[in-house]
Amino acid sequence: MSSACNVESATVGKKLRSAISLLTLESASIPWSLGDNSCFKLSSGTTFNNDIAIARFIARTKPDLKLYGENILQSTEIDAWISFSQKHLGSSNPDLSHLNQQLSQRTFLVGYNVTLADFVAWTTIRGNEAVSHSKEDVGKFIELPGAEMGKVVVRFPPEASGYLHIGHAKAALLNQHYQTNFKGKLVFRFDDTNPVKEKADFEKVITEDVAMLQVKPDIFSHTSDNFPLMLELAEKLIKEGKAYADDTPTEEMRKEREQKLASKNRDNSVEKNMELWKEMQAGTERGLQCCIRAKIDYQSVNGCLRDPTMYRCKLEPHPKTGTKYKAYPTYDFACPIVDSVEGVTHALRTTEYHDRDDQYYWFIDQMGLRRLHVWEYSRLNLTHTVLSKRKLAWFVEQGIVEGWDDPRFPTVRGIIRRGMTIEGLRQFIVAQGSSRSIVNMEWDKIWAFNRKVIDPIAPRYTSVIKGATVSIKISGVDEKADSIPKHPKNNDIGTKTVWFSSDILVDKVDVADIQEGEIITLINWGNIKISKVDRNENKEVTAISANLDLENTDFKKTKKVTWLSKTDKAPFVPTIAVYYDYLITKSVLGKDDNFRDFVNKNTKNEVEMLGDPELKNLKVGDIIQLQRRGFFRCDQVFESETGKPCVLISVPDGHAKSGGATTTEAKSNKGKEPKKVKVESATKQPSAVPSTGASSEAVDKLNSEITEQGNKVRELKGSNAAKEAIDVEVKKLLELKKRFKDLTGEDPAGGSRSKKPAKEKKAENEGKKAAKPKKAKQGKQEASKESAALEDERNNPERKKVSRLGLEITKEENLGEWYSQVITKAEMIEYHDVSGCYILRPWSFAIWEYIKDFFDGEIKKLGVKNVYFPIFVSKAALEREKTHISDFAPEVAWVTKSGDTDLAEPIAIRPTSETVMYPSYAKWIKSHRDLPLKLNQWNNVVRWEFKHPQPFIRTREFLWQEGHSAFASRKEAEEEVFTILELYRRIYEELLSIPVIKGRKTEKEKFAGGDFTTTCEAFIDANGRGAQGATSHHLGQNFSKMFDIVYEDPETKEKAFAYQNSWGISTRTLGVLCLVHGDNKGLIIPPKVADIQVIIIPCGISANLDDSQRKEIYDKCQKYAKILIEGGIRAECDNRDNYTAGWKFNHYEVKGVPVRVELGPKDIKSNQFVAVRRDNGQKTTIDATDAIGYIKKFNKLLDTVQADMFTNAKKSMDKRIIRTDDWDNFRKQLEAKNLILSPFCGAISCEDHIKAKSASEDPVDPRAPSMGAKSLCIPLEQPSLKDDTKCISPGCEKKALSYTLFGRSY
Q1: How many Cβ atoms are within 10 Å of 210's Cβ, its own excluded?
Q2: How far is residue 810 from each of residues 171, 308, 822, 1081, measured CA to CA in Å?
Q3: Would you state the pLDDT for residue 644?
Q4: Which is nearest to 109 in space by CA: 83, 135, 140?
Q5: C-alpha 258: how far from its chain's center?
Q6: At what angle do helices 1068-1077 and 815-825 cross, to 10 degrees?
Q7: Which of 189, 182, 198, 193 shows the shortest CA–CA distance to 217?
Q8: DSSP tag of 945
Q9: What is the pLDDT of residue 1256?
Q10: How many Å from the N-terminal Cα to the C-terminal Cα in the chain?
């Protein structure tokens, strides 16, 4: 800017449009001040008062800022955008479509940096009230296809078989959203197709709940209103041969559908079908055996199209139609009919109905009904919760809950009774939008929305725990009452009466470590100074005297205490605070999980309190906040005549990861470092009975009660239960222990017979030494046992870092749950919102990279080159080899749309790449000189249809390498098959320390379309299952003939077909690794594939260390890590200061780091460190003075760990492989979870027979595998086989060809 244009002053106006000036001035670094209007004055006297003029002037005089573009063309574009913004974006009906279109593919309106065009457009839109206030803070709502304003009709069709739950609430509110946004109509329809489930009472409740949600339907109906029409349409389909009557038993029908088999009745004549149909309508005995099924496609990949049921017989009376009908339609048949005839334009359904969409439209098209749009949104899945009405009804029937409105229930009435507000629920649902992303949501998110609603309006009251209080006598205080606001920030809530007196009660836990002379703050009163503290023989505080110190207004460093005055004029209100926990202990139930196995048996805790006198005015439904305890909802009012207490239900506030025990905890030690107290009662089991004169029976009984109560306390703490609930149970535990000591003369945890391991004794002694107080602080540190137990670690600020890091279940208890925990807590995977697909985190992906690096290097030595082929396969290419693709057909995922446009032909996502690659092989191979062709690709494949995904082991998408080679001779090809198989063995045994059995697959189990398949089979000791590790296939000339892969033979000069192989290993290896090497502490990663081989952890960091000592420890850790890295060892040090050493030990144990190094002050002083093996816990002290020496020791230690892991796994596998020629022993060994080596003839029919006959008919453990034995492989190393040895298959008289390994497998 020239001197003539020097700025004299710059003022930015307060209106939003002045942001244009502000942004430009800031970009040019020109000082400015805030005023009423914008003003830009130059030293020459020129003044600009228009914001855009100011911005243009600065931009033109500061070209280096590029705010006016970089050339004349860009400057012209910017002027055009400024004009457009003023004309089109500032109007009451702004046109944003052109702006959206321009910004869909770019960040800035002009060029590649911000300009005045962006400033003006943004400021204009931001200041336009029509835009800024047009939308609330809502989630993403998908636009409905074909929706027209005023013509949209949606429906909400609940079944009256239970109360409305939160999932139904989402459905109702989403439909209402589209009803209001499109000024359309909402149909509220009861789906009453099943008279067995329908109840009039439920209809009444659901209708009330919908009204309570403020959902206002335009039309009210029942599906049964259209029963006559449905009968006509069903009969129409029967007469047209599109439906048939079927009397196949239910279980048999289910199996037929699973196996894609046609029913024996599928081709019945129309006459026979009509005859049976009339029997059904009459409800005869014959009719009760039948159902009507739609004749769609019994072989369909989509199970919902395999001739679904349309009608079934029910003799129970219908709540609305009585006994008029005996045959009732299924929901799937009735729904499209009623949707169509009631004028519904858009049927909103959760994504779980996706597979039924084709069926829905088939019914509509075949019956000639009006089509409508089916639109999907995600189901609301909540952790620790079941939403099935059948399962919820079970809780009610079993008396586990009080009823359908129990506060632990996810019903609308249940969560409202728990303290949810309708507004909070609406805000949560609206914030979710109509997204299709499937997630398992924590309850905390819902309660956090609710907290925003109740926090500004919930009146504040006070309470103290009954039986756990201390009296404080305050001198110089006259009894009086005062009126103060119920809410400190909202005077509209009103006032309450607070009594002040010389005698007040406080919670004992708040003053457990109080000292004479200390100043504490009484909330809503002021400071008092403690003059005297009385304690009993157990050092418990029994009474306190204090002086009022209201002039002292320094509250920053004082302890804050809630209190209640003792006065006859305002007696306390007897109060019970109720805390609830989740009904289901497991966060997310798997498809195979029986919810009854995870029912929480301790979900309700009550705490007796003395309540604020003002609580007597509460009404049922009032939501309040008890200061420093959290929010509560009044469930029962106080009745002074009967003495009925006031019952308050704790309302979760979204802060804690707990369903029911969520409170805002009392921070009694704010401003002070709280004591870290060890509560033995909650973590240790009582010792054996000491030798006293007490009755052994009485002692045993008391010992048992202590154990049970200790477990209860431990469970409460583990589930993050409310502090008050824990305090009550800890107090009971302490009383039991006191009785034990009075009875026996000894503490229950220290009886004379108690034997502790030397390691534990040493740790305990060291702990005692460390905890020994200094004399000057001795009085302050002698807190009573009871107070210590009550405070526990909950008042410790470090508690925020506590997590449920370790495994909560053992391999032996539940392998599936253990596996799920270990792969997530060890940071191997993260769950994704698409079922069967998982996120591989760095810890697991590194293992895959080490496998990849090894194998890639080895195959390149063999002349294999890497390539990449597309993931998409044309339908024609995929179906060229029918035999090969038949095994994959049900698993193929198809792309059928591009945006909203149907593709001309569906495109498959590769389940394997033979059909993708081999057309190219046919182009590239012309002569014998083009052979061998050896290609490999590292890629992903998708295999979709299966019911029970398991991370790594069975996933819909996985990573692998697939090698494909072509040779001129069979001999060359077969040699490569076994060369590759040996490399796979080395991966498992040398890298992963997992022993495998090399073998050949049977004819039944070989790769479809191949000549033979070889395999590496691993063994999972925990469940006795085999796991296919990797396969190498010889394809012969099968594929070369199919894809015309030919070359000219140099001798005969004729065309010859190539011999081909394919081979692959996948990320399944990672799952096998976890299952084989994991233990009840977590994973154990073999050093060769561990991304961290040695983790260095600083220890002994305590408050007694000064900064220089801490720095020395951290620096040493860094130094040793650097030396180890330079020595070729993958090492890291964890110097995070917000986690304890113990936490880090646990963390890296779970992750399975092979070696842990502990380095503390004593180690530094002694020039040494301690190395701990993860696989067996052995400790080794290593001299730190010789870097070269300890690098060698670490390398040797890592090699030893690697070798020991393999040796142990090999021993485990070898002893579980049983050789037998006897069928009875075969079955016995299978049930003992062993692998069986038996003679086998190789026939497919015999293999099927073996599998069927060896299946468990009635397993003792319902969770145990019950499937029959399948062949795993024919081991390459064979035992000697006698000539007359018969096949192991019962009844087979054929001669055995080899010993074959059988077992259950993944």
Answers
A1: 23
A2: 39, 42, 10, 9
A3: 93
A4: 83
A5: 30
A6: 110
A7: 189
A8: -
A9: 65
A10: 76
Q: Are 928 and 1058 in contact (CB under 8 A)?
A: no
Cβ pair 465, 724 in contact under 8 A: yes
Residues 499-502: contacts with CB under 8 Å, at least 24 apart: 499/565, 499/567, 499/569, 499/570, 499/613, 500/525, 500/565, 501/477, 501/565, 501/566, 501/567, 502/473, 502/474, 502/475, 502/476, 502/477, 502/478
Q: Which H helix or E strand runs over 520?
A: strand 519-522
Token pair for 1269: 């034995």
**Cα 981 to Cα 997: distance, rounded to the nearest angstrom:** 11
| Contact assessment for residue 672 and residue 468, using Cβ atoms and an 8 Å cutoff | no
Instruction: Please say whether the dihedral angle defined by the alpha carbons of residues 609, 610, 612 and 617, taken in this order, is positive or negative.
Output: positive
Which amino acid is located at 526 in the chain? Answer: G
CA gap 598, 1263 in Å, rounded: 14
Angle at 791 between CA 712 and CA 779, to 5 degrees: 135
Where would I find the H helices in 745-887?
Answer: 758-771, 778-781, 785-791, 815-825, 842-861, 875-878, 882-886
- CA dihedral over 545, 551, 557, 563, signed as positive or negative: positive
- Model pLDDT for residues 900-956, shown as the tens digit of each residue: 888 888 898 988 888 889 999 999 999 999 999 999 999 999 987 665 678 998 888
**Mutual orientation of helices 1187-1214 and 1068-1077 as an angle, nearest 10°?**
90
Q: How far is CA 1012 from CA 880, 1219, 1274, in A?
A: 20, 25, 12
Point out the residues of the chain with pLDDT beneath 70: 1-5, 91-93, 95, 104-105, 129-143, 434-439, 656-701, 714-725, 741-805, 879-890, 945-948, 1256-1266
Q: Are strands 872-874 and 838-840 parallel, antiparallel or unpaired?
A: unpaired
Structure tokens at 486: 């119920």
Crossing angle (nearest 10°) for helices 842-861 and 1068-1077:
120
Q: 1047 vs 735, 929, 1044, 1060, CA distance in Å?
A: 90, 9, 9, 13
Q: Do 451 and 429 meet the contact criterion of CB atoms below 8 Å apart?
A: no
Q: H or E stretch including 609?
A: strand 604-611
Angstrom CA distances, 1019 to 1015, 1027, 1211, stand at 13, 6, 11
The tokens for 976 are 């490569």
Question: At 1031, is the secondary structure helix, strand, or coil?
Answer: strand
Q: Encoding tokens for residue 248?
A: 């196949």
1033-1057: pLDDT as tens digits? 999 999 999 889 999 988 888 899 9
Q: 3-state class of 818 per DSSP?
A: helix
Give the phi and the psi of residue 1009 in degrees, each rounded to 5: 90, 0
Q: Which residues pair with 465 in a beta bridge?
A: 609
User: CA-CA distance, 67 to 78, in Å (whole number)?
Assistant: 9
| CA separation for the pair 1286, 1282 (Å, rounded) | 9
Helix, strand, coil distribution of the chain in percent, nearest 5: 35, 25, 40
CA dist., res. 37 & res. 9, Å (int):
13
907, 896, 898: which is closest to 873 by C-alpha? 907
Q: What is the distance between the alpha carbons of residues 335 and 337, in angstroms, rounded to a whole number? A: 5
Q: What secondary structure letter does DSSP report for 87?
A: I
Q: Which among 573, 572, 564 has a CA at the least distance from the CA of 506?
A: 564
For residue 264, give the DSSP letter: T
Is the peptide bond between 911 and the residue preceding it cis, with omega within 30 degrees of 0? Answer: no
pLDDT at 889: 58
Q: Token pair for residue 167?
A: 């999932």
Q: What is the dihedral of CA 353, 359, 360, 365, to 10 degrees?
A: 160
Burial class (CB in 10 A: 0-12, 13-18, 19+), 797: exposed
* Dihedral over alpha carbons 235, 236, 242, 248 (to 10 degrees): 0
Amino acid at 468: A
User: Is residue 767 helix, strand or coil?
Assistant: helix
CB-CB contact of 555 with 521 (8 Å)? yes
